[in-house]
Amino acid sequence: MQGKILIVEDQFIEALNLKVILENAGFPVCEPVQSVPEALQAIKKHHPRFVIVDIFLKGPGTGVDLGRNLMENHIPFIYLSANTNADVLEAAKKTHPYGFLVKPFREKDVLVALNIAQYLHENSFESQLFREKILSNELESIRKEGETISQILTAIAAVLQSHIPFDYFSIDWPSNEQSSIRKGLLRVGFREYQEIGPQELSNISRQALPVVDTIKLQPQRLKNAEVFSGDMETLLANQPLFRVLADSFSFRSCLVYPFNATNSQLLILYCFSRKENAFQKEHTDLLGRIEQKLHKILKTITGEVTKVQRSGGIASRPIPAENPDLIIGRSDALMKALDKLSLVAPCDASVLLYGESGTGKEKFANYLHQHSARSRQPFVKINCAAIPANLVESELFGHEKGAFTGALARRIGKFEQADGGTIFLDEIGDMPLELQVKLLRVLQENEIERIGSLHTIKVNVRIVAATNKDLEKEIAAARFRLDLYYRLNVFPIDLPPLRHRQEDIVLLARFFLQQTCAKQNKAIPSIHAAAFDELLRYHWPGNIRELQHVIERSVILCRDAEIQSFLLPSSDSYYDNQQPPLKTWEEQERDYIISVLKRCSGRISGERGAAKVMGIPATTLEYKMKKLGIKGKIS
Ligand SMILES: Nc1ncnc2c1ncn2[C@@H]1O[C@H](COP(=O)(O)OP(=O)(O)OP(=O)(O)O)[C@@H](O)[C@H]1O
């Protein structure tokens, strides 16, 4: 690490102790300071490479206040703390420190913390640069010629989605000729959006179309790039369009980005999210860095807008998604994981996948490999729990002939097989402790040693690890090394269990049904509503794999044109005992139809009818209403 380390600590003895430890280890250190104002001055003067800051300091401002400042200025830092309460710890975590050093600490703790922090900083900085380079390339490759406004905006949204977590995205260029609001894109799946224009907004908000048509963006009140969360009221009071959108879709945070480009058409990008605090300054900063690129793309379409809108605009329908290697599902939890996945895929960073058995960890690992520059190189999988402890080392690193009894020939280990590609270490939490040290060495030095060999071999491998264990608990129980954990945990991704992804169960069931029928060369049977209810009520301890097997078994045994019931393990439904009863599939469908009918004042067909909002033919809706017993005037 070049440059000096700054210590911000108001306890003189502790500051001195830390300084001595660091200097003995060869790190240059600035004179310690005791308060936030002193620290700010020292930062100006010395431009430290790294800051170690105590959370509780004398004088104005706390260590967390300083942490916020350091985060904004991209200066890496770690916190020093004694007994910190949960609230302070939460606030501290939000400033993205590279580590915590808990008092009292030993010399070894300080050096390990610093080593890990340095690695994390370099890695996150490098991968951020790399991700931005990819983002920039993706924006450049958006086709402009011959594409409609809608196609171009959708392409921009799909590229930005992994970087900015929005549920709704739009770019407006207010002009005198503009007769109504621009269409926005509502996220409905992975890179799948539904266009929301005046007609859809009128249906959903239950405001008459002529009223919605008069609502326009007020650009004069949107001068600065800003993010809004709990304080959205001031924004909504000045922007009737935002008010209608926020009320209609229950949005709870917003990002506004007016383009700075001078002498050109005024452009305003805005996004909404249903989550609070979804947007941060880092998102507007990112937009600032790519503004020129966006402007270049948009320049070609802003002149076209009047023509397209007058000619009736674009039909409202979900825009088909790019097929993400058949990762099926639309739940929020899955979308979040997929966004992270596509963000990290092109980088070389290690990834740690957390999830119960059968949640799709291997599928995600495969996706990462396929979407990286290593995709033409090998993808090698090893399950650390499935191999006897005494054989894992030979499996991973290989052995020379005669290295141990039974080593009759030289064996090439998985790391060598994966050279140039990706290695997937499944169940990493089960890796024996002594092997963890060797894995750390591969991560740090990119080299391995076959058992029985005196030579080291250079390997270039990306590591994707997975576990269904809580590694922090494993560390506490001394079964997993803290330093390895920090190295692997550079980019963690959580895969939600299926029982928390109720909306994905039906999609996955249909997918496996089609897949199995195709394999078995069978006609696809329909599924009785009661059978779907069974799937929704079951708690899926084996997650997606279990669902897949249930469907496969049911298809094989089904002799009719309809599956009446699925073959689920005994009926001790988890939800019967643990939670209030879930609504049945039919009840949910019924509620949904009634709510849409209400919004459409009971109208079924036509431009403003419920069938249009639901994206199904009016005759299908009428059939469903009859089947579900929805009668009478609903308004
Ligand atoms: N989103 C998805 N869409 C379609 N199929 C999926 C999805 N997720 C998982 N699967 C399928 O479910 C099965 C189990 O997934 P996978 O093997 O990736 O889970 P896992 O978490 O690695 O399991 P384990 O921890 O037991 O190794 C596989 O057949 C996989 O193809």
UniProtKB/TrEMBL annotation:
UniProt keyword list: ATP-binding, DNA-binding, Nucleotide-binding, Phosphoprotein, Transcription, Transcription regulation
SUPFAM superfamilies referenced in this protein's UniProt entry, alphabetically: CheY-like, Homeodomain-like, P-loop containing nucleoside triphosphate hydrolases
SMART domains found in the cross-reference section: AAA, REC
Modified residues (4-aspartylphosphate): D54
GO annotation (BP), single: regulation of DNA-templated transcription
InterPro entries: AAA+_ATPase (IPR003593), AAA_lid_NorR (IPR058031), CheY-like_superfamily (IPR011006), Homeodomain-like_sf (IPR009057), HTH_Fis (IPR002197), P-loop_NTPase (IPR027417), Sig_transdc_resp-reg_receiver (IPR001789), Sigma_54_int (IPR002078)
Transferase is among the record's keywords: no
Domain Response regulatory as annotated: residue spans: 4-118
Domain spans labelled Sigma-54 factor interaction: 327-556
Entry GO MF terms: ATP binding; sequence-specific DNA binding
Pfam families documented for this protein: AAA_lid_14, HTH_8, Response_reg, Sigma54_activat
Protein name: Putative two-component response regulator
PROSITE patterns membership: RESPONSE_REGULATORY (PS50110), SIGMA54_INTERACT_1 (PS00675), SIGMA54_INTERACT_2 (PS00676), SIGMA54_INTERACT_3 (PS00688), SIGMA54_INTERACT_4 (PS50045)
Taxonomic superkingdom: Bacteria
